[in-house]
Amino acid sequence: MDHAAQTIRRLAVVAAVTTLISAPALTASAHDGTGHGAGHASSVSGAAVIEWNARAAEAALACALAPANNPLHESRMYAMMHLAIHDSLNAIKGRAEPYAYRARAKGAAPLAAIAAAARGTLVAAVSTLPEPFSACAATEVPAIEASYAAALAEVPDGAAKNRGVALGTAAAQAIVALRTGDGSDTPLFDTAYPQGTEPGEYRFTSPDLPFAFAPGWGDVTPFALRSARQFRSDEPYPLESRAYARDFNEVKALGGDGTTTPSARTADQTEVARFWVESSPLLWNRLARSLAEQRGLDAWQAARLFGLLDMALADGYIGTFDQKYDQNFWRPVTAIREAGSDGNPRTSPDPTWTPLVTTPPIPDHDSGHAVEGGAAAAVLRGFFGSDRAHFTLCSHTLPPGQTCTDPDPVMRSFHRFSQAASENADSRVLVGFHFRHASTSGTEHGTKIGRYVVRRYLELTHH
């Protein structure tokens, strides 16, 4: 969908939803909202927004989207929720451009609006997950409703609370309507996907994973991009090239499991490899929560931060899956085992080569994980105005005893957002998933997406 068509669709959705709302003092408008709700709007901390982000992460884990199974629907869920929260807050006090819902909400309580926007989008996203992830809805939807009830219980009863609930509900309805029919119901496990037969062509990566994962995700409607191909990265290196042989021999030497296949990885490199297996939306949102808390963001700032981050992450997956299945390049596990057919005298086959972790059933180029890291780092850099940041991260995919949920988790330290993105990209070679070119190209691809989102969406109107 081109940008003009997408804008027209948004305006149509907003107009349709706005006609459904009749709560007092909640009216559609092209101007900024001026109501303060229960207390002055600018005095509302970002705690509630941060807590709902954490609640969305709980839902992702409960539904087995995370820590590593389905970051596609996970990223979509976060983006929908935070855009609804952003729009509802900016209807109360206009500080940034809305995304899908524009209104004035005089006297609406911000905390009630946040809760209603989060509840409306989370319930919708969880209720429409595809199989096998949909099984969680029976328990997770009631759990979300319980979180919603607890959040509303903290808001004094009265007209402001009612207006906040109406506002948040309307903002959620707008984004849910906008994303209905976006293509995210595409099949996830395609056992009939045609495997390549020629050198360089993708084929299934493991007998235990006899399918291609989400080959149609590149057709999902982007949140921000004009098209999935807008910032497509470089193509894979030609098989006969020196550059391909260099990347081939690097991942062959470093990416093995250390048991069936020897590896030259250091202990720290093995930690890096496993650390970054975790779902990108789960990890980068966890970092954003930490930063929002440390820097004392208010509700409007936190909503904008998460809205920008999660739009970029969602569009990163759409862009990289479009490229992956178009170029259909083989993974290192296939390339190394079948190197005798690649026509490159600088490569040699190892028919039993085994990566550190089983390779995901998706083509190689570019690296989706690297795209996500580039996009996230670009958003964080653009939002905070600097690449410099001192932070630590834990992971859900390290060995037992070392994870985020353990008493003494392994923490990795970083001094720049770009440093974390770079280590994330390196990890995909170290774990045996990607050629180096797929990772470096992916980071560049994601960086362009993140910059575009920050510059074009949720622009500040009052500083």
UniProtKB/TrEMBL annotation:
Record's signal peptide: 1-30
Region (Disordered): 337-369
Protein name: Phosphoesterase PA-phosphatase
UniProt keyword terms in alphabetical order: Signal
Record-annotated membrane-spanning stretches: none
Native source organism of the sequence: Knoellia aerolata DSM 18566
Annotated SUPFAM superfamilies: Acid phosphatase/Vanadium-dependent haloperoxidase
Biased composition annotated in UniProt, kind: Polar residues: 344-357
InterPro entries: PAP2/HPO_sf (IPR036938), V-haloperoxidase (IPR052559)
